[in-house]
Amino acid sequence: MIADAPGAGNRNTLADETHERGPARSELLTQWLVGLVNSREYGKLAELRRPTISQNAHIEAGWFDPRRREVFEQVAFLFAVYHRGAVEPSRGYGSLGAAARGIGTSVGRGPDDAGASRLMDRIVASRRPPLRHLQHAITRLRSCDRPPPSWSRLADDLARWTDRQARIRYQWAVDFHAPPPRPTARNNTTSTTTTTKDTLT
Questions:
Q1: Which of 45, 93, 103, 126 is an S-S bond match for 130, by CB 3.0 to 4.6 Å?
Q2: pTM
């Protein structure tokens, strides 16, 4: 009888635990990137903006999750692109689809901006994480002075890009085309009451 290799019985459990720690690892990556801006590590940020040249900063970003090294290096690159010359870091919020709603001008943003719509169409049509189009989106957000997506969520989303069950591309498209929030009846009542009170005064 051949004995199992050490730890063989726990292999699936360890893999599951590693998968469950995925979001935590992406959050650690975000904390490290935010720390680079806070501590004025401009040299490392400049290294991260050179994706075609292997730099120590890229390697360091990838070590937060060796199984998703390529994705983590890409997100670190996009973070550095957005924070070029920044003195305050932004952790971002939501998906890239939701963030892309801020791309455009005062005439129209998101789905109401033809350029933003074309860019989003190219992104969600890509079978592999489209780094070039993502860079364009992040650059547009920066130039429009709009908040970026959540960097930790971006890492998790890109890592599951080809997962049909996750449907990341579809979710980004849904977030991008979501209708603007409507004012609630409570807000309307409050506004009316305030206006009436001010008039009587």
A1: 126
A2: 0.79
